[in-house]
Amino acid sequence: MGRSQAPCVQCRYRKVRCDRQQDTCGNCKRLEFSCSYRQNVSCKETKKLKSESVPPERQRASRACFECRRQKARCSGDLPSCETCRQRQRECHYTDSDLPVESSQLLKSASALFPIRRQELLRAIGQFFRHLYPIPSFAFLHEPSVRQHCLDGSLDQSLALSLAAVTNAYLSTDQRLLQECASWMLRAEAENIQHLHQPSIRRVQTLLLTVHYYIRTGEFARAYMLVGLAARAATALRLNYERPELTFVAQETRRRVIWALTSIDGYFSVGLPEHETISYPIIYQRWPCHEEEFSDGNTQRSTGSIQNLTKPNSAKTPNLLSACHQITKIQRDVMRLTRQLAISEEPLAALPGLVQEIQNDLWRLHDDVELSSEFSISAMTRQLEMNHSQWFARYLLAALLWHQVHCDLYRIFLPGYPEAVPARIMNTTDANFCEHAVQMCHIHVMQVTEILAGVLALSDIPVLPHHVAVCAYQSARLILFLPSLHCSRPEITTESAIRSANLALSVLHTFFSSTPFAERIITDLEHLLQASVMSPATAREPGYLSSAPSDSGRQRHSQLAVHSLVRQAKFEDDDYET
């Protein structure tokens, strides 16, 4: 039997069908009402319910979502999305005015923070790890964990929004979608700012994605301020230190976050300590491990100390993420050396030896990679052969950076070059060493040019690292300058230099024409090429203001290159007290 004959008081008031279940009917149980069928309800309370003329507050009828109302379907009223919308994989919207106050507030904190369908999010995650994650400054998320959290519905909402937004910003041309991404990013950013005093790994990762988004959209000032917040949060969490008690994936995630932060920081600081948000001397973490280890959570091929690149790798796949970060660190050291030499007032007899030490570090890194994986960074064709690999960006970046750092290191000994050491140091430097520097510049800038020529032949690469644009720009400047040197090789003619510079410009136009980051680079190189074509003698003159020769070493020390995002942010101090 187990069923009452008459409907309960609540259902009778609401004029809804009562299932007459004993103790508590289904409607009262679902809506958490005090059902008149409850055996423990006192007679006095039952009489009170029957005698009330005003029905309880409506909670069910006005909670149908927009889609269920439109299709006249039963709506469960669940937040952030109803059961029907979840089953049909459609976006669920409620009208705030039709909800109780508590439900409206819950909607704003739940549904409004997750306006992306699961399938769209999974698609964005797939594109992110296929095209953006291979770039070292993006390599700070654990793909299996992110995918699993997405399937479980437990992925951090701000992280999900920022990941989808930055992926679409780099890969989509749909203007409507890009406008939605802007609102997603603002929402994720606001969430981070609101919890600024409660840093976490996820929030630091969200901040890094936010910084990447604003770099992509040209909001460099906003990106610069946010990368400072990310660095402060990272040091507050002590991500710059090892945590041996954590799981392997947790430890490696911490490492990758801090190393990605140093890579992003380099976009802004370009060797100027005052613009650094995180400095290498305070990092006591190991280099990132192989991707296979990180993806599988395997600790057997774990990296050793911070000085070691890798241990023997049975898979013979190079740890190019570690290599790229190490080359970037060496490049930062070269930049700082160049700036320090600009303000040096005394001849530096130990300078050739210092340069040789940096050269040894580069070759040591080269040999470590070759020994562990039978892969040669300097083998130009190997990088281009890997264009179908997911990790092509890392193969390309490791090779370009390795050659570009050589150019950065030796160009300071080219008389008349904007970044050259002061005359008092140049005059005391051994002439044979200066000749060697010219030859090294020629060798490595030609290698960069040949790699760029191979890249230009590839048309199916959706995204290239920003460093590729910088290498193309700097190599073009250098090769246009080399013919003006009397000790230069005979094969370095003005005509061949202009051809090489035009090739670099073609790479910039092909892969970076829609990137705000590269606009000034492209414009500057075009002006330099025009001047070189009109008068070969102008090849000695820099085509951009940031490297214009100056009589003041202090000015040269603090100059920002045209590709510095701090310079492009155009900060102005226009508020003065009188």
What are the main properties of this structure?
CD2-Gal4; 578 residues; 0% strand; 4 domains; elongated
Task: Explain what you see.
The protein has four domains: about 10-50, no CATH class; about 60-115, Irregular (CD2-Gal4); about 120-310, no CATH class; about 325-570, no CATH class. About 55% of the residues lie in helices and about 0% in strands. The longest helix has 26 residues, at about 430-455. The chain is elongated, with a radius of gyration of 31 Å. The chain contains 25 helices and no strands. Residues about 40-55, about 55-60, about 95-115, about 300-315 and about 540-550 have low confidence and may be disordered. It is mainly α and about 575 residues long. The chain has helices at about 10-15, 25-30, 45-50, 65-70, 85, 100-110, 120-130, 145-150, 155-170, 175-195, 200-215, 220-235, 250-270, 290-295, 320-340, 350-375, 380-385, 390-410, 425, 430-455, 465-480, 495-510, 515-535, 555-560, 565-570. This is Zn(2)-C6 fungal-type domain-containing protein.
Order of SSEs: HHHHHHHHHHHHHHHHHHHHHHHHH
Distance between the termini: 91 Å
How much of the polypeptide forms β-strand, as a percent range? under 5%
Low-pLDDT stretches: 40-54, 57-62, 96-113, 301-315, 539-551
What is the number of strand segments? 0
Helical content class:
55-70%
- How many discrete domains? 4
Structural class: mainly alpha
Total count of helical runs of at least 4 residues: 25
Short description:
GO terms for molecular function: DNA binding; DNA-binding transcription factor activity, RNA polymerase II-specific; zinc ion binding. The chain is built from 25 helices and no strands. The longest helix has 26 residues, at 431-456.
